[in-house]
Write a structure and sequence with these properties.
alpha/beta, Rossmann fold, 7-stranded mixed beta sheet, 11 strands
Length: 314
C-alpha cells in the first residue's frame, strides 16, 4: 500500500487526535449528569439496581419507565403514578475493550474501522473521566493485547490512548489474525473486573462467534455491558463492480459481483450477523450501539441516544 495512502485521513489515528476527542464529549451525553440522565441508564436499569446505582429522585411516571420502580407511597398520596429514579455510583470502574486487528484495517466510508474503533474508545474514555469514573481498558488485536487497570486518573486514560494509537499505527494488511482474539480479551476481563463494573466492547461486527457469545454471557452475570460492533458498507452489500480478485497470505479469491445469487447470499449473511447481535443484546439485556464507517461517529451516537429518550420511538 503506498505511503501516501497510509497517511491519508481516516487510515491511521494519532495520539494527538485521540487526545483532541476530549473536546467533543460535550456534543453527546453518554453518562448522567446532575439533573440530567443519559438514556443509557435505564435500558438495563433493573440490572443496575442494588449495585452501581443510588437513589436520586421521584418523578411522574412516563411511558417506558420500569413498572418495578414505581413509588407506591407517592402514587397513593398524589393519586398519580410516580417512579423512582437512580443515578450511577461515582467512581464506577469502566473497562474499554477495543479491537485493533487486521480485519479492522479496512474501510470504504469516511474512515477505516480501526480508526472508528479508536475514536469511539477515546470519546467514551474522556466522557467516563469527566463523570468521575475509574477508567481502564484492553487493546487487543492480532496475537497481542495490552491492558491498563482502571484508575480515576488522566494518566491512566492517556496510557490507554497511547497504546491504542501505537497499535493502530502498526496495523497492516499482511498480519496473521488470531482465531479468537476477542474471546481471549473477554476471558481476561472476567478475571480482572469486579462486580458492578461497566465493560464496553468495541469490536468488528464479524467477531461474534459462539465462543464469544458464551464469554459475553458469562461477563454479563457480574458486569454491565455496552456493545459497539463496527461495520463498513461493504460488510453488508457487494458493489456491482464485475469480477473482483482478492489475494492474502498466498490465497486467492475471485468473485463475480454481478452474480445476483452471490449478492443475495452476501446480503443474507450480513443480515444474519446483525440479527445475531440484536438477539444477544436482548437476551443479556444489555445496550447495543452499532457503529458504521459510513457516517460521523458523534452523529450516530447522538441519533441513537435521542431515539432512547422518553417519548421517542425507535
Amino acid at each position: 500500500m503506498p505511503n501516501r495512502l497510509l497517511a491519508a485521513p481516516g487510515i491511521r489515528i494519532s495520539l494527538t487526535e485521540l487526545i483532541e476527542m476530549r473536546h467533543r464529549v460535550r456534543e453527546v451525553q453518554l453518562f448522567s449528569r446532575p439533573g440530567q440522565r443519559s438514556p443509557l441508564v435505564g435500558l438495563h436499569h433493573s440490572k443496575l439496581r442494588g449495585r452501581g446505582v443510588d437513589f436520586d429522585q421521584v418523578r411522574v411516571y412516563q411511558a417506558g419507565d420500569d413498572v418495578r420502580n414505581i413509588d407506591w407511597r407517592v402514587t397513593a398520596r398524589t393519586q398519580e403514578p410516580h417512579t423512582k429514579l437512580f443515578h450511577e455510583e461515582r467512581e464506577r470502574p469502566i473497562f474499554i475493550l477495543v479491537e485493533q486487528s487486521q480485519r479492522l484495517f479496512f474501510g470504504s466510508g469516511l474512515m477505516f474501522k480501526s480508526v472508528l474503533a479508536a475514536q469511539a474508545a477515546a470519546l467514551i474514555g474522556w466522557a467516563a473521566l469527566g463523570h468521575n469514573d475509574r477508567i481502564g481498558g484492553l487493546v487487543f488485536g492480532d496475537n497481542e493485547h495490552y491492558e491498563i487497570k482502571p484508575r480515576r486518573s488522566k494518566q491512566s486514560l492517556l496510557q490507554l490512548l497511547n497504546r491504542l494509537a501505537r497499535v493502530n499505527q502498526s496495523l497492516h494488511t499482511e498480519a496473521v489474525p488470531q482465531a479468537d482474539s476477542l474471546g481471549i480479551a473477554l476471558r481476561r476481563a472476567r478475571e480482572v473486573l469486579r462486580p458492578g463494573s461497566l465493560a464496553i466492547i468495541i469490536c468488528d461486527e464479524r467477531a461474534l462467534t459462539p465462543a464469544v457469545e458464551q464469554q459475553l454471557s458469562l461477563l454479563s452475570r457480574h458486569c454491565d455491558l455496552l456493545l459497539l460492533p463496527l461495520s463498513d458498507p461493504l460488510d453488508h452489500a457487494l458493489p456491482a463492480a464485475g469480477l473482483l480478485r482478492f489475494a492474502q497470505h498466498g490465497a486467492q479469491l475471485e468473485l463475480d459481483t454481478l452474480d445476483p445469487t452471490l449478492r443475495k447470499s452476501y446480503r443474507q449473511q450480513s443480515e444474519a450477523r446483525i440479527e445475531r447481535w440484536e438477539l444477544l443484546a436482548q437476551k443479556l439485556r444489555v445496550v447495543l450501539m452499532p457503529l458504521s464507517t459510513q457516517s460521523e461517529m458523534i452523529e450516530q451516537l447522538r441519533e441513537y441516544l435521542n431515539a432512547q429518550r422518553p417519548g421517542k420511538t425507535s
